[in-house]
Amino acid sequence: MSELFARRMGTVHRSFIREILKVTADPEIISFAGGLPNPDLFPLESMDRASREVFANIGASALQYSTTEGDAGLRTIIAERYAKRGLSVSPDSILITTGSQQILDIVAKVFLDKGDKVVIERPGYLGAIQAFSIFEPEFVAISLESDGPDLAELEQALQQGAKCFYAVPNFQNPSGVSYSLEKRKAVAKLMDTYDALFIEDDPYGELRFMGEDLPSVYSFREKPGILCGSFSKIAAPGFRIGWVVAESPFYEKLVIAKQASDLHTSTVAQAIMRRYLETNDIESHVGLIKERYGRQRQHMVDMIQQHFPSVVNITEPEGGMFLWAALPEGVSSMDLFDIAIKDKVAFVPGRPFYVDGTGENTFRLNFSNSDEQKIEEGIKRLGSSISTLLD
Ligand code: PMP
Questions:
Q1: In the predicted model, what is the mean pLDDT of residues 234-248?
Q2: 3-state secondary structure (DSSP) of residue 333
Q3: What is the pLDDT of residue 14?
Q4: Which of 79, 119, 96 is nearest to 265 (CA)?
Q5: Which CATH number does 2-42+284-390 carry?
Q6: Which numbered atom of ligand 1 lies nearest the CA of 35?
Q7: Which residue among 18, 125, 348 is best mutated to probe the pocket of ligand 1, counting the most ligand atoms within 8 A of its Cβ?
Q8: Minimal CA–CA distance to 214: which of 182, 252, 256, 249?
Q9: What atom of ligand 1 comes closest to residue 102's alpha carbon?
Q10: In degrees, to the nearest 5, what angle opens at C-alpha 137 toward C-alphas 21 and 155?
């Protein structure tokens, strides 16, 4: 019956990471593979209280259909939080979405025709590659350096007619790389010059545990852009609440695409999130997350320096949830994966993050979801797997 499928599904595969997560379900495996926030830090009691207050205060309307744009109070809080970080946006230019993942789907629906050129970082976020692939664009991969994209490659792609650039400028998934201030400004300028769309995905921006916060690329644009945010990493992903900031006429089209997709994001989830934000200090909660992840990141870096052969290079991210490792050229992280699974430790091989099929020697490590003891043991095991592979 496979002839029943639309042609576009031929180019899309199940998320490689979700497949890996099945292998790592074995409780003896220490997994640095998932991209999960640390569940110890979910605000369980406050959410429990907020949900009871929602039902007591607004009753059945929490269970009713609601507007596509999203809860007005929640959008106002999001705008106020941006204002505190120096970005002025109107609540009317915020659209609540079902996770920020949904934005990638609706953005693709609104902007991508088959064959359109889409610039993406190399490595790039797998969820975006998957969401966009359904619309059959032509990906143009540009190198990601330690301070952001290779600007010459970006300009060349734009000269050759690329329509948009999707990027994660803060603590990127998968590499942990962040754009420098200079590159943020330069990217904004290039996107303005070529009248191209910049899709700025920022679920990790608030999780900076060292260095200085930097303004979004969006804030440097003279022409309209798209800025995506999410409560998944600063509160809890199970709510599936994200948002997109976009001006007219992008905003209206995104609303139409979302309406066609799910009418609106869960009313009750939005009501509870709003109540939580109104009655709790999320900034101090984010502070706790940063403090914990910062320690875990430092421990992972220290352990890698002790236990990995020195030929392995890593990024040392200033925030977020991931760091990125590179084996010597020509050594395959898939081969390492096979050895590591036998040694009961897991990670995500890098290749699926490269739309051009390179990246064979790279891999991603998650530090948010393991305590320091697990990090120590897991990195020791992985160091020994790497030594076995290189012997
Ligand atoms: N963008 C990036 C870069 C991500 O890493 C993730 C989560 N893995 C998402 C978007 C989706 O997050 P959510 O839908 O939970 O907001």
A1: 97
A2: helix
A3: 67
A4: 96
A5: 3.90.1150.10
A6: 8
A7: 125
A8: 182
A9: 14
A10: 105
